[in-house]
Amino acid sequence: MTPHTAKKSKAVSIIDFLRPHWKALTLALLAVAGQAATDLLEPWPLKIVLDYLLQSKQPPGWMSGMIGWIGQDKLAVLNFAVVAVAVIAIVGALSSLLEKYLTTSVGQWVMHDLRRTLYHHIHRLSLAEHDERRTGDLIGRVTSDIDAIQAFITTALLGILTSVLTLLGIVGVMLYLNWRFTLISLSIAPVLFLVVYSFTRRIKKASHDVRKKESELVSIVEEVFSSIRVVKAFA
Questions:
Q1: Helix orientation angle between 74-124 and 22-41, rounded to the nearest 10 degrees
Q2: Of the residues 21, 90, 141, 147, which has the fewest C-beta atoms closer than 10 A?
Q3: What SS3 class is residue 212?
């Protein structure tokens, strides 16, 4: 099996564990979209204050209709901006709370299913497999490896999606405001990608080495603790 095929097989296996929780994940995706939208709308009330209150510009027609519910003077514009700040903050907080609750719940269920499946799989291994693998390695896979998968589901999976949606929204707004400055600011993106990619490879290798040392440490500790009664008896 090639490394690419192995990675694809692992991804399919994780998706199989996530599939029963598709409803919760769908709601979490909607919450992520809400978070991204509120992140993009956060500067908007400040723009209202600067453009239409301090500089006395005329607001667009759709905004004039919304502000008209409160009044027509500058105080009405300020009140509208304050209400907008409160609404954006509340929607963002509720979206974040819902996303965290759902992803944490799904992560816990997936962790439970993974540990149960892995536990039964270890019991089905042959004696030769148990001779080749140290006890600490098996314990590390049942505990720390699955904890890493849970952390990926609860923090990284939808967090990456939130960042991507927010970044795309920011780029879209920047292109709308001034496409020339946007292209200039994006010109450094390839350099940043190369720097991040080079560090990512090093971090991945270092993380793999750390996990290997952790499994060796667990093996040593398990062997010491399992034989400590015999050692004390003959000491």
A1: 150
A2: 90
A3: helix
Instruction: List the one residue out of 107, 99, 101 whose CA is nearest residue 38.
Output: 99
Q: Is there a domain that residue 92 lies in?
A: yes
Q: Mind listing the pLDDT tens digit for each residue in 140-189?
A: 777 777 777 777 777 777 778 778 888 888 888 888 878 888 888 888 88
How confident is the model at residue 6, as a pLDDT?
A: 47
Nearest to 117 by CA among 21, 7, 16, 216: 16
Q: How many domains does the chain have?
A: 2
What domain range is 223 assigned to?
188-235
d(C-alpha 68, C-alpha 59), whole Å = 11
Query: 80 in a domain, yes or no?
Result: yes
Within-domain flag for 112: yes
pTM above threshold 0.90 = no
pLDDT at 210 over 60: yes
Token couple for 153:
């589901």
Q: Residues with Cβ < 8 Å from 134, sequence gap 6 or more?
A: 215, 216, 219
Does residue 112 sit in the same domain as residue 198? Answer: no
- Torsion sign across C-alpha atoms 55, 58, 63, 64: positive
